[in-house]
Amino acid sequence: MKNLTKISNGVKDKITENTTLAEILENPELVKILAKYNLPCLSCPFANLEMENLKIGDICKMYGIDIEKLLKELNTRASAKGEDERSSSTRVYKK
Question: pLDDT averaged over the chain?
């Protein structure tokens, strides 16, 4: 994910206005959030051709979506998923 900014010692990725739609769509949990905001690109056949170039900030401006609110929700979910993955990979099992 080239446009995501590494934070917290490279453990979490931060989604910004410059993150492409293609990068966000790699995470099914984040797709659910985009659908909640009725992002038209999810069902647009033309968007499929441009996903690598469509920045989430530009999309929000075009369709009047509150970018700050969307970014907050996307980053909250992305960091929660990262926490889930880290905690499951560091579990210690006792017999």
Answer: 79
